[in-house]
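Take the subject:
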Amino acid sequence: MAHQHPSHPRQHHNPLAEPAHDPAAELALVRSISPRLRSSRDGEIEQELEHELASDGTNTAPSTPPLGPPPDGGREAWLVVAGSFLCIFCIFGLVTGMGQLQAYYLAHQLAGTSKSTVAWLASVQSMMVFGGSVFFGRVFDIRGPRALTVLGVVVTSGALLALAFCKVYYQFLLSHMLFGIGGTFIYSPATGIAGHWFLRRRSTAVGIIMAGGGLGGVIYPILIKELSDRLKFRDAMLIIAAFNFVMMAPACVWMKSRLPPKTPPPWRDLAKPWRDTQYVCLVIGVGFVALNIFTPYFNAPVYAAGNRTNDTVRAWAIVITQTGAFLGRVTGGLLADRFGVWNAWAAMGVSMSITAFALWTGTPIGTVGVVFGLLLYGYTSGAYITLIPASIASISPVSEIGVRMGMNWSAIAVPMLIGPVISGRLIQAQPNGTFTYAGIFVGFTALIGITTSLWPFVWRAIRRVGRPADEERGEGADGGEAASEATLAEEGEKVGEGVRQGGAEAKA
């Protein structure tokens, strides 16, 4: 077989060349997936590749050795996690720490501008970070993370340099938009790459990566406040721009793909995931939660002031919230590995809604109540955000994880744009500018969102009520209702007929 190697000498010298389509290698990759993590879509892909090879008269033996399952650890895998952690630390440190910048803008350059107008800066930036994910998730699946990471580091650093010289509203808006564009280059690779390197400990790896956003949310408000109190705004932002660049630069080397390049699927294939009811409900539910998930982060000082706390609590309200978010992001993956992704995710979503209704709507609740409310909302929302990628990965074919995550983040970009602005109007509508109406809005959208995401599980449970035990066992044997016998966590990881097929292969 040695004579076959010189037949493709040019493919390795042009990085821009279209990667060769190797159905045998792709078939080996699909077959290497653990039966426990397979979905029905993996089975469909396997059948399509087998049909393609059969029609071409090609042997199903791969032209390249199969990669095997993800290593679940090792130096390279943990460096990938470290690089992704640093990227999320820098991007979301500024995205979720925007409340500190908004307070500075309202007191200095944008004094006299309404809060709802200034709120557009944070909303537009958040929307830009998530809005391009459907496209760049596809690029990540095809080409890997390196080029996107390098481009994102350059663009976000340039945006912060531009922000240092802004003086009027439209300049601030353009700079924050540019930062969001740079963030969207990085976000899909940073959150999706753990699936290439981890299998059993995927939730833990994703939790560590997403914890970067929580830690950044603690560090950046402190950094912005201390630097802006001591230095001119321009000098403070130049220091932050340099800090960002230094922190993110290692990711350009450490973040790399384990899987080979593949031919891009046609754009019409983006419609396939939308035939999966569970995925559709997940995205719609996350969209409702996304309307307001960052609203308390941006308005933590308003919440503290409305409850008549002292100046110290008001000044540190954002940091307190972000501290809770950091703890939630760190422990979210651990909870998912212990109790199941969907069990942990559902618990955090419901707890977030209860926290908003119980602690963010009544005034005054005292300093202790405010601090507890800030910490608890930060914790539950941080864990919820962390488990979104793991939840998507648990119900997706491995070859579609990146694009499915990308479509999810793009779909929730518009809700993220309008939610904080509506909440700003609700705050202004109250006589004393308290957070009561906005708190009700936050709790209500979170409750609708998590209920929608869990609806497929609820519907299956409703259908099981009153069924004879022998009927359920019969359906389980046929594979049509295999997921109905599982817990929430098992259903999230064993979807469709993939479980039955995996069991048959294991016996064979």
About this structure: The radius of gyration is 24 Å. The chain has one domain: 75-257+273-458. The domain at 75-257+273-458 is CATH 1.20.1250.20 (Growth Hormone; Chain: A;). Residues 40 and 498 are 5 Å apart (CA to CA).
